[in-house]
Amino acid sequence: MEQVHRIDHPLITHKMTHIRDKNTGPKEFKELVEEVSLLLAYEVTRDLALEEVTIETPCASTKGRVLAGCKIGIVPILRAGLGMVDSMLTLIPHAKVGHLGIYRNENSLEPVEYYWKLPQDISKREVMVVDPMLATGGTAVAALRFLRSKGVRKMKFVCLISVPEGIRAVKEKFPEVPIYTAAIDSHLDERGYIIPGLGDAGDRLYGTE
Ligand code: URA
Fold first, then answer.
1. What pLDDT sits at residue 161?
2. Which atom belonging to ligand 1 lies closest to the Cα atom of 195?
3. Residue-range domain boundaries for the chain
């Protein structure tokens, strides 16, 4: 699928297997989410622009390239998206973080916005929306729509697990937004859970099951 980047790497595959395991407790789960997010961040930033600079090594003058100063925003969808933020910041420390609270109504599965706080200059930033699970796509589409309404032009969606239903929903409304995912699972169950998935990402991160 065009614009869908399934990041295939033995370290990610290994860590995702432990993330999925129901016997993995919140501490290890959180650490693994952070580690996979770090590996994803590496791929998500692959197309950042560089500019040439001249530097002095201890031995000689040489040309090098550094990031061209592209302004990045990271927007986790609360609350599970929070688990991915620190890793993204580790690799992109100059990024600013906005927060967006959207939950799925358990009956209608419709997204409900309940909180947001964004950097003032969000419209000038390339924004990475992070949420571990791309399930129905309702929350992702609502988040992207919300950010677009705030003037954001360039967006990427970063998740750990997606399903074809969610990918289709995002692609239909935002064909220009690339999706980065560590796994594409089989389908959704009748409650909107990803199968096989990992259960409720927020509950597993914060031990609220
Ligand atoms: N959100 C989750 O946390 N898990 C799912 O399986 C689907 C949506």
1. 98
2. 6
3. 4-206
